[in-house]
Specification:
This protein has 299 residues and is α/β, with parallel strands linked by helices. 45% of the residues lie in helices and 15% in strands.
Length: 299
């Protein structure tokens, strides 16, 4: 299994293993719908004093090579990350993946398919907008797709920048939000499929922003589907709610993670630093990754 050799190299780890500091394990870059290129995300995190971060772009790992190289240069620990969207019935469930082999041919093939589906969806939505009299220059969408993964936030930004709406909120509320006239549903992964993709390449599946589900009764089902952790600490979560999800994690035998979900934009995205996760949670994440590698080696 290549993950055994590649995980330490892909992680951009420093030689002395850290035992303190802070982490942000949920950041987006311009490889998906963040504003900043991966290397700039790393530089910003270093300036903010973080010990470790994870860039978790949607359906792509295109930003990880640049981020890893930048992290090595400045001595920041980078945990390979990814965010996959899945559905449990009508419930949208985001699954984060950590500590996996991001050079896996299997993973890259899966992500190419998901990104192609994303681009088709955007083109279909642009076509529907045109039928509504909103004729967009889609060059910005094509540029984003050429680097990594394209999504509705790119489309919303294009609507704002080209003067069709005042802000991101109006773009979703008027045109591209669920149930709106230019909305196109996306192809679905199940949570079990998303977790299976991550675990097949040696990774750890984590339930992102569980409060978005607004239904804790779904969590045991997601654990059966392969979820190994829960994002208890999140940019908009109160301390009471973070404590609640910490209790849920303990009850379900899950790892605890946290992150800002930073998109580094001016329209509601969270800034790096909104969450400062104690490094001990990163240690537990890496311990679990090492455990999975050891278990794989015994089989």
């Amino acid at each position: 299994m290549r993950q055994k050799e590649l995980w330490p190299r892909n992680a951009a780890r420093n030689t002395p293993c850290r035992s303190s500091g802070y982490a942000d394990l949920h950041i987006h870059s311009s490889a998906s719908d963040g504003r900043l290129p991966p290397a700039e995300v790393v530089q910003l995190a270093a300036r903010e004093g973080f010990t470790a971060i994870s860039i978790c772009d949607h359906d792509t790992v295109a930003g990880l090579p640049d981020a890893t190289a930048a992290a090595r240069k400045i001595g920041l620990e980078l945990i390979p990350g990814l965010e996959l969207t899945s559905y449990l019935g009508k419930n949208e469930v985001h699954i984060l993946g950590y500590c996996f082999d991001y050079e896996s041919p299997f993973l890259l093939a899966v992500l190419r398919r998901l990104c192609a589906e994303r681009l088709k969806r955007m083109k279909d939505m642009i076509r529907l907008l045109g039928q509504l009299g909103v004729r967009l220059d889609q060059s910005t969408i094509d540029q984003a797709a050429a680097f990594g993964s394209v999504g509705r936030l790119h489309l919303a930004r294009a609507l704002v920048e080209q003067g069709f709406v005042r802000d991101i909120k109006e773009a979703f509320g008027r045109y591209i939000g669920e149930g709106k006239p230019a909305h196109v549903p996306r192809a679905h992964l199940s949570p079990a499929e998303a977790c299976g993709i991550i675990t097949r390449v040696g990774g750890i599946p984590v339930l992102a922003h569980p409060h978005h589900l607004d239904n804790d009764k779904l969590i045991p089902t997601l654990v059966k589907d392969g979820v190994m952790g829960i994002e208890a600490f999140y940019g908009t979560v109160t301390s009471d709610l973070a404590e609640h999800y910490g209790d849920v994690a303990k009850k379900c035998g899950l790892l605890v993670t946290g992150g800002s979900d930073c998109h580094q934009n001016e329209n509601g995205g969270f800034m790096i630093g909104a969450v400062k996760l104690d490094y001990r949670y990163v240690e537990k994440l890496k311990e679990k990754a090492a455990e999975l590698v050891a278990r794989e080696g015994q089989q």
